[in-house]
Write a structure and sequence with these properties.
The structure is a single chain. The protein has 348 residues and is an alpha+beta fold. It has two domains: 142 residues, Immunoglobulin-like (Sandwich); 160 residues, Collagenase (Catalytic Domain) (3-Layer(aba) Sandwich), CATH 3.40.390.10. Helix content is 30%, strand content 25%. The strands form six sheets. The chain has a five-stranded mixed β-sheet. Strands 9-3-1-14 form a four-stranded mixed β-sheet, with no helix packed on it. Strand 18 and strand 19 form a beta hairpin.
Length: 348
């Protein structure tokens, strides 16, 4: 007979073998019509399959095909290698604020299970400059598994691309929010919170612009968020804050109907003055890190007329790392602009 100790050892070895053999893998296939007349008919379906042997709780990241929001999710090139212009949303988002209770924030797939998601690419891309041509469509390859204990595990998916010929209309009109209304779907309480956020944003912008104007050499505050000092990069950053400071937030239109978990807000870069506010915006403070006031600066920096920043990295840690590794990208990162303005913890 086996001793109790030996039985325990064998059980441990068996469990370890099972754990070691567990795999997390995903495949994605992009499909759609092979010939498209008019961009409004450019509907692309991505089939996402759990090809591993354990359940996956995949984050519905706006930049992944798991979200149908019109974000920059696809890599699209024509026969000459040119890409269409991205005209979709730029959002402030973080996986770190999610919990397993946020059911709408995830897509759960059992081993072997698939899901199809259809994206209207006319809402995100303008094909006017790249022209009528044959295009190849690939999707963002990195997905994120959210474990029971809150860990975020990246998974690099295998992808199968799609090709299609596009002709006819190459850009779709976008319906803007009614300019006569300052608020859409916002309760009186939320309208009051927006007014307070505007005041906080204006104070942050005044401080940031004044600081940059009076500090024309390297400082810890500047290098933390924008990296190694150079006069040209400093001028770029100052120009962004100067433009944003000139915005009249009281004339903006705010939409409060967004329900996307983990998202503060989003804008369409070419639709100046329209900001869509999401659940995380209401969950944070008016001032401080990732605040409502800071979020308005983040979103306003995305507007093309204000400099057209991107969402290269989210969060303070990632923004600091970006400043050290790539100052040229840091000066175009929206969260970097927000954190410099919020200045929390304070730096001189």
């Amino acid at each position: 007979m086996f001793s109790a100790t030996l039985k325990a050892a064998l059980a441990y070895i068996a469990l370890s073998a099972i754990t070691a053999s567990a795999t997390q893998s995903v495949s994605m296939k992009v499909a759609g019509p092979s010939d498209v007349t008019d961009v409004e008919n450019l509907q692309i379906t991505t089939t996402i399959t759990n090809t591993g042997d354990e359940m996956l709780r995949l984050v519905n990241d706006p930049k992944s095909p798991l979200s149908t929001m019109p974000a920059d999710t696809f890599a699209i090139t024509n026969s000459a290698g040119a890409a269409p212009k991205f005209v979709g949303i730029k959002a402030k988002y973080s996986m770190e604020v999610l919990s397993v209770e946020d059911a709408d924030a995830f897509t759960v797939l059992a081993p072997g299970e698939s899901i199809d998601l259809t994206h209207d690419l006319s809402a995100a891309y303008n094909f006017t400059q790249s022209g009528a041509d044959a295009y190849t469509f690939d999707t963002a390859k990195t997905l994120y598994h959210f474990t029971d204990d809150g860990a975020i595990v990246p998974i690099e998916a295998t992808t199968e691309v799609h090709s299609a010929k596009l002709q006819g209309k190459l850009v779709a009109p976008r319906v803007s929010l009614a300019k006569r209304a300052s608020y859409n779907g916002c309760s009186s309480t939320r309208q009051s919170q927006i007014v307070s956020a505007i005041s906080a944003a204006e104070n942050y912008l005044s401080g940031a612009t004044s600081y940059l104007s009076s500090h024309t050499s390297s400082t810890s505050r500047y290098t933390t968020w924008f990296g190694t000092y150079s006069s040209s990069r400093h001028s770029t950053v100052l120009s962004h804050y100067t433009k944003i400071s000139g915005n009249d937030y009281s004339s903006f239109t705010f939409d409060c109907t967004c329900t996307r978990s983990g998202t503060w807000a989003y804008v369409y870069a070419d639709s100046y003055g329209e900001i869509y506010l999401c659940p995380q915006f209401w969950a944070v403070n008016t001032t401080g890190t990732d605040s409502r006031g800071g979020t308005l600066i983040h979103e306003a920096s995305h507007f093309t007329v204000n400099g057209g920043t991107d969402d290269i990295q989210y969060g303070q840690s990632a923004a600091k790392a970006l400043a050290q590794s790539s100052p040229s990208q840091a000066i175009m990162n929206a969260d970097s602009h927000e954190y410099f303005a919020e200045n929390n913890p304070a730096q001189s």
